[in-house]
């Protein structure tokens, strides 16, 4: 079995290394306008910071 890890663009404009990193940010209370960060799309954000 092959493990494939995708970069994830969060609603905060940060590119996360994987889904677990994005979930960690959400659990630590990272928000956008009071809403926990979520997946915007798969792949890196355009012109974003890598988290």
TrEMBL record:
SUPFAM superfamilies the record matches: Kazal-type serine protease inhibitors
Gene3D superfamilies per UniProt: 3.30.60.30
Domain Kazal-like: from-to ranges: 1-47
Pfam families in UniProt: Kazal_2
Record InterPro entries: Kazal_dom, Kazal_dom_sf
PROSITE patterns attached to this UniProt entry: KAZAL_2 (PS51465)
Record's protein name: Kazal-like domain-containing protein
Species of provenance: Octopus bimaculoides
Phylogenetic lineage: Eukaryota, Metazoa, Spiralia, Lophotrochozoa, Mollusca
